[in-house]
Amino acid sequence: MQSFFNVKLPPVRDDIFKERKEMEPIKRILTPTLERPNYYLIIGPHGCGKSTLINFVAGTFKKGIIHVEGSDDIEKFGENFAKAINYPELDVNLVKWLVNQLSGGPYTHKLLWQKVLSRFEEFASKAVKKYSIHPVLIIDDIAKIATNYPKVVERLQNVAKTAADHRLFTVVFVASDANLIDNFMKNSSYSRCRTLYIGDFNENEALAYLINNRNINAQIAKRIFDLCGGRISHIVGVASEVDQLIALRKSLRKSVDYKDNEFCEEVIKIVDEQVNGIKQDYRQVWDTYVPENSNRKILQFLCNNLDAEFTRRDIIRLFDERTGEYIFSTLLKNNIITYKGGIIEFGAPVIKTMLSELHEKEQEIDV
Ligand SMILES: Nc1ncnc2c1ncn2[C@@H]1O[C@H](COP(=O)(O)OP(=O)(O)O)[C@@H](O)[C@H]1O
Ligand SMILES: [Mg+2]
Fold it and tell me: Which Pfam families does the record cross-reference, listed alphabetically (predicted)?
């Protein structure tokens, strides 16, 4: 029973992990000895470092935190949950077997995640009494569950509220797709949810990461930040390319010293190429998903508002209602834009550059 609550998480490498200011509030949310009358939602754009941050902080506790990865396959979600609490393998197989045997398909019977949840609830109530642990259940990437099973998210939200009412355990949802927030916020228990927004690294954090954790010199670090902004997933991608360049140069016995001009030029070339690659990926997303006949209007709007705040309504009213809704959700789904509270932001800093370059090109063609 005690091992049930041992913290098992994907490891985060200390040497590469960059501490950030959100660690404190996350620590308060995750502390597995505190009773709380609420449940939590941690939200922020795709690739801003939510999972890594949460796993790192959770890893500083020995007991009482359960981390479950969401999935758009409900069976897989059940399996993730089962693994997270050491739900016996036999039971997992037995449940699968039963579900198949008893015909009618999985939906008429208790699904694996529900079975595992019941077991979790049972253990949680014992843990509170016996070990003074107040377990924390993290459900990461709930947008994945919400895509195919909005009702399951609703159920989980109700479980979270009831658990908070009885001070049994704390549920922490993690999400990057704000589409889901609409339904999540409409749930009557939402007033019991505390929301924490996590965004991109600020300039100091990004530079400190590149300079101290990745040994990149200050000038090139600044260039990377200017191009990528503080989106850590992009920064990590660029830094890894630089590592590869260094490995290659070492194997060719060439200099890897930032005082050497030739080396610096090579690094800058690699950085620029990598950022261009990121931009092209977004460009492809834009070309693939934004319908051609709406393309210009929305591009114009976004480029006029690169540094302004705008809302969902502002986008929708550019078109007729249905088209507007469609364009809005297409942009959201594909991470071109993202929600921060009621305000829309660009999905990642390089998207702004990608869009304005595209806009300029189109205007040149017009002339
Ligand atoms: N604090 C950090 N220090 C170093 N690398 C980080 C940090 N946070 C995130 N990363 C890296 O950035 C990438 C995206 O992070 P992730 O946690 O998966 O983002 P999210 O869950 O918000 O989509 C991963 O490759 C991860 O290793
Ligand atoms: Mg994540």
Answer: ATPase_2
In tens, the pLDDT along 6-34 reads 667 766 776 778 999 999 999 999 998 88
Residues across the chain = 367
Name the residue at shortest CA distance from atom 12 of ligand 1.
Answer: 233
Best of 12, 52, 53, 214 to mutate for ligand 1, by most ligand atoms within 8 A of CB?
52
Q: Outline where the chain has alpha helix (H).
A: 23-30, 50-58, 74-84, 89-101, 112-131, 142-148, 150-165, 179-186, 203-208, 218-228, 232-251, 261-289, 292-304, 312-316, 321-333, 349-366
Q: Whose CA is nearest to atom 15 of ligand 1?
A: 49
DSSP string, 156-201: HHHHHHHHHHTTS-EEEEEES-THHHHHHHHSGGGGGEEEEE----
The pLDDT of residue 313 is 92
User: Per-residue confidence at 267, pLDDT binned at 50, 70, 90?
Assistant: very high
User: Considering only CA atoms, which of 284, 271, 274, 277 is closest in space to residue 336?
Assistant: 284
Q: What's this model's pTM, rounded to 2 decimal places?
A: 0.88
**Rounded mean pLDDT of 74-89?**
88
